Amino acid sequence: MSNNSEKKTETNVQSPQNEEAQIPLAELLKIRRDKIKRLREQGVNPYPYRYERTHYIANALADFDRLSESETTISLAGRIMAKRKMGKSIFADLRDSTGKVQVYVKLNAVGQEAFDLFDSLDLGDIIGCDGTLFVTRMGENTLAITRFELLSKALHPLPDKHSGLKDLETRYRRRYADLIVNPEVREVFRTRSKIIQAIRDFLNNHGFLEVETPILQPLYGGGNAKPFSTHHEKLDMPMYLRIADELYLKRLIIGGYDKVWEFCKDFRNEGMDRLHNPEFSMIELYWAYADYRDMGAMFEEMLRKVVLKVHGTYSIPYGDHQIDFEPPFKWASMIDSIKDETGIDMLDMSHEEAKSAANQLGITDKDKLFNWGKCVEAVWEAKVEHTLIQPTFVCDFPVEISPLAKRHRDNPRLTERFELFVAAQETCNAFSELNDPVDQLQRFMQQGKALEAGDEEAQPLDDDFITALSYGMPPTAGLGFGVDRLVMLLTNQHSIRDVLFFPQMKDYKEGTIPVSKMLSHLIDQEDE
RNA sequence: GGGGGUGUAGCUCAGUGGUAGAGCACCUGCCUUUUAAGCAGGGUGUCGAAGGUUCGAUCCCUUCCACCCUCACCA
Hints:
Layout lengths: L1 H13 L1 H6 L2 H18 L15 H6 L1 H6 L4 E13 L2 E8 L2 E8 H4 L1 H8 L6 E10 L5 E12 L15 H6 L1 H7 L1 H23 L3 E2 L5 E2 L11 E4 L4 E5 L4 H9 L4 E9 L11 E10 L3 H20 L3 E4 L2 E4 L5 E4 H9 L8 H10 L11 H12 L8 E4 L21 E6 L2 E8 L4 H16 L10 H8 L5 E7 H9 L23 H13 L1
Parallel strand pairs: 3-5, 6-10, 14-15
Antiparallel strand pairs: 1-2, 1-4, 2-3, 4-5, 7-9, 8-9, 10-11, 11-18, 12-13, 15-16, 16-17, 17-18
Helix pairs in contact: 3-19, 10-12, 10-18, 13-15, 14-15, 16-17
The structure holds one RNA strand.
């Protein structure tokens, strides 16, 4: 066994030159590497330091008539995305962060040396160019170059200029390449930024203080999830990456701030799929002296403003649906909406009655039916959830499934809690927060038992948090929502990976030779 | 974790039990307002990895890896 593998290694080691010489990418890299060497010999620095540009492309085009009539010399900088040579003149497409423009180089306008340099440029190279704007015979607004400069030589070829980069794995692993060639991807992330900015503006304008709390924590909590564990060397203690912000933000409410919020990067050591990345973003906010109804009204207003700011309309597409964010959103209690869908009123049922009601609807999984609240949830999920396409506040969840929410003031079986559903997906989770330290301690103890029993997602007892609560926390409404999921909804993206620049990927890829290895081999050859 | 699918050139994709194909990109020519520029020539490949079947495997079989979809749990 070990003999075999050693033999294989030997043969691999013996023929690396031959093997790599046969790799076409290495060949392409070598061609460009040779170009760089030639440039340096001519005294051209392929990686200079700065370029003084006068216009972004979009601005230059917006002011085209004036700039072209006055023959103003302007300076643009960007990446070459296409090149068309026509004998002694060359056209190229130059792109910067704002747009694209055609540039034009003519032999007798720039001289032989500069013309040859431009001729040798590759797609992907970054240049700066000075010139004047004019319209070609074919009617295209174009920059006639009077002078240009190579600003950065690209070694790696760009993906296909027409079909772009489609392979999902490559797009996620090499997001920069995806962004270079796929404009719609650039747009999704611009929208993401806009959404977050709109939320930040809204909260700051409503008197919420943006705060920061620890990501690296001695104890995790505020949700049910398995954490990432690490270790602090000097303190010699275990540490965790946070799974939620809740407990720290509540400490700030106790400390006397009335309205706080945080943009939180959270980490959960769980499975990954279309809706889950191990690292994700949440926004949590806490509002003292308010209850969950106040919070619902504010969240509705926030969403309304964000949608309008980002899309300019309340009606946006998502998958097969057209979602209308025109307020007011519908409120439907869990119990009532079950009644509406099935005719069954579960409010005053015993556990046994609820279970048989669920059974009659075809729900038999015992784990989902082990108390009244779970039965209500199971029936609701089976019969109601998928119908909630338009924005709907689902409220008043059973107490058994809402361990962090205050009991409902009108019915102790329920809690003051809501989730907003859009396109049958949960968009936020909010409650009138539990502020009775004894009640909180008891719920921690229950979680502790679950933890001991092997539930890796149960919350450990946080003594310090109980201490904090015992100083007295005002009545408070709290709300949290997944930023990535909201961005998915507002940009019509199917997967969380399409709204994260760098989604988590397994880092092993068999059979691929890294560019760095090809390059070091190239350098070795040059040294010989 | 269960089920289904994909993996061939830098990119997008065809294809076959018997020496591997196209378009774009790239290289060499020609062309001074082109524009998915055009014309002529050039293929640069561990057909995801490792085994197996076979005279012969990129193709068939097994295992593995990565990615996608889907179901169950979580935001």
